[in-house]
Specification:
- By secondary structure, this protein is mainly β.
- Helix content is 0%, strand content 54%.
- It has no helices and eleven strands.
- The strands form two sheets. Strands 2, 4, 5, 6, 9, 10 and 11 form a seven-stranded mixed beta sheet that branches. Strands 1-3-8-7 form a four-stranded antiparallel beta sheet, with no helix packed on it.
- A hairpin with a 4-residue loop joins strand 5 and strand 6.
- It is elongated and about 50 Å long.
- The protein starts with a strand and ends with a strand.
- The model has no long low-confidence stretch (mean pLDDT 94).
Length: 121
């Protein structure tokens, strides 16, 4: 079964940078997309960035030009480089994988446990 483990969260000052990592287990038959969502206090979970198996990317308007999503297929890992961080970026960030764990499996969503990013002076 797919297991997703996030790392890289923490406390950073406004204008600073962090890199989040999400490592997936090697039981995946095919991946449609991997991405990052976030949920701030009192708000709904929102898509931050996603990357398809073909390398196409999608970003929330609020992070375009500041965040970059990338992947390392050999390591089954997706990254989120976050630059020029703002207080409004503070949230729990969740790794998401959409794919098929086995050839006969249906496409499904899998989630990590989340990592907290706090942007504060």
């Amino acid at each position: 079964q797919v297991q997703l483990v996030e790392s890289g969260g923490g406390l950073v000052q406004p204008g600073g940078s962090l890199r989040l990592s999400c490592a997936a287990s090697r039981t995946i038959f095919s991946i449609n997309t991997m991405g990052w969502y976030r949920q701030a206090p009192g708000k709904e979970r929102e898509l931050v960035a996603a990357i398809t198996s073909g390398g196409s990317t999608n970003y929330a308007d609020s992070v375009k030009g500041r965040f970059t999503i990338s992947r390392d297929n050999a390591k089954n890992t997706v990254y989120l480089q976050m630059n020029s961080l703002k207080p409004e970026d503070t949230a729990v960030y969740y790794c998401n994988l959409r794919g098929r764990v086995m050839q006969m499996s249906s496409t499904a969503d899998y989630w990590g446990k989340g990592t907290l990013v706090t942007v504060s002076s």
